[in-house]
Write a structure and sequence with these properties.
This protein is an alpha+beta fold and 144 residues long. It is built from 5 helices and 5 strands. The longest helix has 17 residues, at 103-119.
Amino acid sequence: MSVAPVEAVLKPWWELARHYGEPRTVLHYACRTAVPREQHEAYAFNIAGGKVLRESGVRVTGGKTWALVIRVVKYIEPVKLRTRYALDFWAGEKWRTADHDALVVIEALYEAVVHAEALRPTITAPAQRVGHGPATYYDVTDVI
């Protein structure tokens, strides 16, 4: 029995969100979020210390640090102490994090964001890396 790739099995995130509810934005570098500003540090701390389930990233020239990271993280939400799943995206001084209590919604959103970033980068990337899919764009990815 063969196993289909993840993206062939998952519905688009917006279809899943209709059934499970929309992800909520918990952290954002410039916009208001579903979380009060005074709780941002607690959320950032718990997400940073959570378990990384999936990750895609682009290293800066020289390869020692990251220019862009997109992660799926299992973490404990600091207010109600429930397990939640976060899509954590950061590139330089810009970051945003959405979360949900259903992993399937965040997994599907991750797939969509990783593909969108590879097609239309938010960072400066060499032309030969852009537009050819995740395997060419990212230094590390688990997306086909």
